[in-house]
Amino acid sequence: MKIAIVGAGAAGCFAAANLSIGPEDEVVLFEKQHKPMQKVKASGGGRCNVTHALFEIPALVKKYPRGESLLKKTLHHFSPKDTIAWFEQRGVPLKAEADGRMFPITDDAQTIIDCIWKAMMQNKAQLKYNHALETIELKEGKWHLFFKNEQVYIADKVLLTTGGFPKDEQWHWLRDLGLEVVAPVPSLFTINLPKHPITKLMGLSVPNAQVKLMGTKICEQGPVLITHWGLSGPAVLRTSAWGARALGNLNYACNVQINWLGSINEQECRSIFQDMRTLQGKQMIQHKIPFDVPKRLWHFLLEQAGILSDVRWADIKAAPLNKFIQCLCAYTVAMQGKTTFKEEFVTAGGVAITEINAATMESKKLPNLYFAGEIIDVDGITGGFNFQHAWSSAFIAANALSTI
Questions:
Q1: Of the candidates 186, 188, 165, 228, which has an alpha carbon nearest to the alpha carbon of residue 43?
Q2: Which of 108, 127, 209, 282 has the fewest CB atoms below 10 angstroms from its CB?
Q3: C-alpha to C-alpha distances, 176 to 138, 183, 298, 372, nearest whole angstrom
Q4: Nearest to 53 by CA among 45, 63, 44
């Protein structure tokens, strides 16, 4: 039995690490680059956010903007608890951080890579680098894989773990097989605000802000980072994931509203300000800050509202106070483009989940053709959810591909 795995990323390598094959069987991983598991190496700032400490499947699937009906089945087969156990059994314990993200206790992605690599080598998996797949054909019950370097490999079974492709035309070879492919759009990206004055605060992190796409119900809360090109951070990235298709349709040009105070609304803010005027009236507004926002942002928004730096709480006029409340709770910016968040880059789109048998990850139309990872139309928000999908789908595919 010859098994070809195309793509030596997280899903492809994890599948190879979990195969049970006989001595006469051959497993070959084909990778278009010269190194395996590059996204694993880069993720989580080099620490690798392996999974998330969220163990209830109904709650877990809500962290994926796309693919819920498939995930309800696959995550039952191999859940975050199974991921934790798999690595711990091989000497790599994981730890959960306060926000639920899980990392190896070494805080080093290489630990995860080495663990998977060791299991792959025990399974006698072969790797062939610099092999970019061009097309595949089914001939007389065998899969013929044609690579750009003019190499051809004939396999009994094929697992596609190529990841996502950003351009729609890059999916033609799968559509040529009669498979439905959902057109790709980027997910997990940052918001560009070219020449906006707020970019002078670059490097500033706001611990708990709310990000809303105007004209939609999409709203996320969490840390926001101000950069030299616009806005980033977990709340922005999650917003981009949920709004991936809507923003693509708008060509990444829309209004975004930021509540720098998180869940504190304008009415609550006004009430707190009234208390400040009564109880702290002699204090300068620039020095006495009643919220957990950075001082530089506070001063910037005062300036935006037209409030002078030496104004006391008791002396502030109604019009600038109203403007300041609006700046704090409903600061509106015009998004003009996006920037890919390379550490966590994900493509929304791919092979439609209706094409795949969730119990085996095999194509419903084409025998002995399997899929795992980001090539499928499944994507999650940041926090280890995309890796969990990779582990789950790869583990299920490996079980189906195993010969013993």
A1: 188
A2: 282
A3: 12, 14, 56, 19
A4: 63
pLDDT band at 341 (very low <50, low <70, confident <90, very high): low
Domain chopping of the chain, boundaries: 2-186+346-401, 189-340
- CB-CB contact of 231 with 190 (8 Å): yes
Whether pLDDT at 345 is above 90: no
3-state secondary structure of 321: helix
| Digit-coded pLDDT (tens) for 130-150 | 999 999 999 999 999 999 999
Top-confidence residue, 342 or 387: 387
pLDDT of residue 343: 55
Residue reference for tokens 């596609």: 160
CATH number of 2-186+346-401: 3.50.50.60
Sheet containing strand 189-192, edge to edge, reads: 331-336, 253-259, 205-213, 219-226, 230-232, 189-192, 338-340
pTM: 0.91
Sign of CA dihedral 146, 149, 153, 157: negative
Secondary structure of 27-65 as H, E, C letters: EEEECCCCCCCHHHHHHHHHCCCCEECCCCHHHHHHHCC
**Amino acid, single-letter form, for residue 370:** Y
**Could you tell me the two tokens for 206?**
């706001």
> Is the Cα torsion angle 237, 380, 345, 171 positive or negative in sign?
negative
